[in-house]
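Weekly sync notes, structure subgroup
Attendees: PM, AL, DS (notes)

Item 1: joint prediction request from the bench team. They want all two components modeled as one assembly rather than separately. Inputs as received:
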Amino acid sequence: MIDTLQILFNGVVSGLLVALPALALALTFSVLRFANFAIGAMLTAGAYAIYAFNAGLGWPLLPSALAGIVLGGGVAMLVDRLVYRPLRERSPVTLLVASMGVAFVLENLVRFVAGNAPVGYAVDPARPLRFAGLRVNHEQLLIVGIGIASLALVWIVFRFTALGRAMRAVADNAPLAAARGIVANRVIGATWFIAGALATTAGMLIGLDSTLDPQMGWNYVIQVFAAAILGGISHPMAAVAGALVLGVSAELSTLVIAPHYRPLVAFAVLTVLLLIRPWGIFGTARLAK
Amino acid sequence: MTSYLFSILVLVSIAGIAALALNLQWGLTGMVNFGLFGFYMLAAYVYAQVAATGASPWLALAAAIALTGVAGALTSLISLRLADDYLAIVTLGFAECLRLVAIHEEWLTRGSLGIANIVRPVAGDGAFLALCLVALLLSFGLLEVIARAPLGRAARALRDDPLVAATTGKDVMWLRVKLFGIGAAITGVAGALHASYYQYIDPTQFGPIITAYAFMGVIIGGRGSNRGVIVSAFTVILLLEGTRFLNDHVGWLTPAQLAALRLILIGVGLILALIYRPQGLVPEYRLKVRVPAPVEG
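Output from the run, pasted for the record:
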C-alpha cells in the first residue's frame, strides 16, 4: 500500500518536472501555431544561467533563481525577435526547423562555456523526511512547491489578467485580435517571456533533483512533447494534466521495465495516442489529410 | 595528406547521401524527419551485425537498406493523418528510443563497448572512396529520376497542398509512406557506409548532429533540388568536416569547445539560410512547358 503511494508521489513529482516545459510548449504553440523544438535547450540554458549566478558569482540559490528566470525569459524574447519574428509569415514547418537550429545554438553555447561534464548547484544536502511512511526529500518538496506555484501563477495570468485575455484572443483568432487593437508582437513577446521563465524554472528543479549537463533538456524533449500532445497541444493548461498522467505511468512502468527506458514509455504512450486519439485527452479533432 | 583527403571525401559523400535522402522526404514531399540519425544508426548496426555473422558485406548492405526502408515506412504510418509537426516529433522519438536501445541492450548491440572489426565490402582506401562516390552518384541519379517522374510531381503536390493532390485522385497516405520509406532506405545506404568506413561503431557516434548536417545540406542547397544538395555537400559540409582536422592546430580551444563551436555554426547557418535565402543555392527542378502565344483575333 505504502509502496503504491510512494510510486504515485514520485510519479506526481516527475510529472510536475515535465509539466512546466510542457506548459511552455503548449503556450507558444497555442499563440504561434508552431512546435518549438528548442524547448529542451531553453531548459538547459536556463538551468545553467542560474548555475552561473549561483556557483559562478556565489549568490544564494533564491536570488540566483530569480535572476536566472528573468534572464531565461529575456533570452526567449530575444530569440523570438531575432529568429522567429522574421520567419513568422512562413510555414509552421520552417519555424519548426528554425527552432531546431536555435536548440543547437543554445545547447552548444552552454557546452562551449561550461564544458560537457555534469555540475551541480551549491546547496547543502539534507536528509529525506518521512510523512506517515512516505519518503520525501527536500528536492521533491521544492519541486512540488515551486512547480505548483508556477503553474498557478501562469494559470492566473492566463485566465484573469488583461495580458492573459490578449493571449487567448491571439491564440483564438489573430487577425480579429489585431482588429480589436491587440498588439500581436507585444503579446507574443510576453508569451515567450513566460515560456522562457517556465523552462528555466524546470531546468533549476531538474538540476536540484539530479545534476546539470548540457544534454539535460534534450533528454526531456520527447516526454515534454508527449505530455503536451497528451493534453491536447492547443490547450495550454491541459498539458499539465498530460504531464501528470505521463509521470505516474512512467513511474509505474519502472515496476516492469528498467528506469532508463522512461523516454521509451513516453514514446509508446505518444504512439498509441496518435493512433487512436491524436487531438489529446481534452482537445478537439484537428486532422490533416 | 592523401589519407586526410580520403577521409574528408568519404565523410562528405556519406553526409551527401543522407542529405539527398532528406531532400526526398522533406525537400520534395514536405515530411519533416528530425529522426534521420535513428534510421542512419539502425542501418549501421544492421550492417555491422549481419556482416559479423560472416555473410557477404554486400548482403549486409542490402539488409541494412531494406530494413531501414521498412522501419521508415512504419514510423511514418504513426502520424500519417496528422500535421507535419507530429511527424517531426514521432521520428525524433523513434530515433532517441533506438539510441537508448543501442546503449542498453548489450546482447544485441554490445552497448557502449561498440562493435569492432566491421568488414568493408571492398578492400583498400581508393576502392572504398570509389564505392562511396558511386553510391552518392547512384542515389543522386535515382532521386533525379524520381523528381522528374510522376511520383516526384505527386510528391511536390503533397508538399504544396495535400488536399489538391487528394482531389486529383492521388492516394495521399500510400504516397507518403512510400516516399518516406524510399528516403529512409537511402539513409540506410549512408548508415551502412558509415559503419564500414569507421569499421567500429558505438552509440556515441549517432546523434542529432547527423540530422542537422542533412538539414544544412538541404536548406543551403535549395529545398527540392538534388543538384543543390550535391553543391552544398561539396562546399558547406566539406568546410564543416574540414574543421574536424583543425583540432591539432588551434591550441587555445579544447577539442570539445571546437566541436561545440562547429555545432553553433551549424545552428546559426540553418537560421540565417532560412531567413535570408529560403530558396537555397540551386532552384528546384520544374517542368517547363512552352506556352503557345495567344492568337490575335
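Discussion: Chain A touches chain B through 48 residues (CB under 8 Å).
Action: AL to compare against the crosslinking data before next sync.
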